UniProtKB/TrEMBL annotation:
One of its GO terms (cellular component) is cytosol. InterPro entries: DNA/RNA_pol_sf (IPR043502), DNA_pol_Y-fam_lit_finger_sf (IPR036775), DNA_pol_Y-fam_little_finger (IPR017961), DNA_polymerase-Y (IPR050116), DNApol_IV (IPR022880), PolY_HhH_motif (IPR024728), Rev_trsase/Diguanyl_cyclase (IPR043128), UmuC (IPR001126). Its cofactor is Mg(2+). GO terms for biological process: DNA repair; DNA-templated DNA replication; error-prone translesion synthesis; SOS response. Keywords: Cytoplasm, DNA damage, DNA repair, DNA replication, DNA-binding, DNA-directed DNA polymerase, Magnesium, Metal-binding, Mutator protein, Nucleotidyltransferase, Transferase. Residues 9-190 form the UmuC domain. Binds 2 magnesium ions per subunit. The keyword Nucleotidyltransferase applies. Poorly processive, error-prone DNA polymerase involved in untargeted mutagenesis. Copies undamaged DNA at stalled replication forks, which arise in vivo from mismatched or misaligned primer ends. These misaligned primers can be extended by PolIV. Exhibits no 3'-5' exonuclease (proofreading) activity. May be involved in translesional synthesis, in conjunction with the beta clamp from PolIII. It catalyses: DNA(n) + a 2'-deoxyribonucleoside 5'-triphosphate = DNA(n+1) + diphosphate. This is DNA polymerase IV. The lineage of its organism: Bacteria, Pseudomonadati, Verrucomicrobiota, Opitutia, Opitutales. It comes from Cephaloticoccus capnophilus. The record marks F18 as: Substrate discrimination. It is found in: Cytoplasm.
Amino acid sequence: MPRPPLPTIVHLDADAFFVSCELARRPELRGKRCAVGGGPQRGIISSASYEARAVGVYTPMPTARALRVCPDLILLPHDNEHYAKTSQAMFDLCETVTPLVQRNSIDEGYLDLGPCACASVAAVEAKVRGLVARIWEELQIPVSIGIGTSLLVSQIASKLRKPRGFVTVPVGEEAAFLAPLPIEQLPGIGKKTAEEVKARGLRTIGDVVRKTDSALAGILGRDWRQVAAWARGIDTRAVETERAAPKSYSQQETFLEDRAFGDFEDIERGLKRMLDELLVKLRADGKRARTLTVKVRYPDFTNSSHAQSLPEPSDLERPFYPLVGDLLRAAWTRRRQPLRLVSVRLSGLTEGPAQLDLFTSANEAKHRHLAAVVDRLNANGKKPRVYHGYDL
Ligand SMILES: [Mg+2]
């Protein structure tokens, strides 16, 4: 007899990760108001203990303001190397449960327990509780868990009862689970968009389901179909392990506040930083890319993008860098409108090292050597972080 379907997608999200990493090696600080961040240059809180959050410290918050609302705040300097090691150890533990682990960021990711062939929801939950206990025992990192049938549902579930949350959404109850939640719980609906769509009658995720298609299209613009599917708990994305060969490499940033055309140079710099990070991954995977795409999203959720291809695929910054500003300009056609999100994507991937011609090879080899050195420095977590485009 076929097994009944089970919720096997798990979203694991460490609680106050940077602070938790610090508390793991300085347990005397447990229960105190502390935060990571706030060096002289980066005067921003990047992680705050729940005790500090209780008195109004949040991330990202300027350190000066955090110290005003919480004068006894204990500030801890960033230690990227320590956080990266802890993250690796945490995901290694995840991989002892299932081979299907997708890392989304340093402190959160998805697991698919499908391969575990659990017989019941209780068996799925027991496996996950075992993992949570091991992460706590071995690393002293508290995590929150969401379990569901899709990435979307598990991700929303894990955020509901932080810290140390554990929420399971049974099969078939996805839409009912989502319905009462505020609209901004859906991915891509930021604070500002949420205000706009709430004013037009979309306060909860359930409101999306109740609206007609044409009303939704009027409120949400081109993305309405995606939002309508999500609101019903429909999400067909699968957990992607790093072992699966990617077809493209992309990264996006949603701004805290929408950015106007006057911020063009700043946005361009941000795109180059994202491109740097993609190229590090590309090189680590032994790939080259031919096409660079820049996408922008306006506050009404409409997107616009522009792409350009190189004559030869590359894994170096040099040929891609000059394209970034032009592509941003070409994509940003509605200049009077601010942007809520930008992304960069590298596609047209080829395996293996570049074929160098005789004239460019010496220069190319020099840049490749420098890129490798920088990748190693970054991998070792040496500070300050080196960005290829600025330092080569
Ligand atoms: Mg987290």
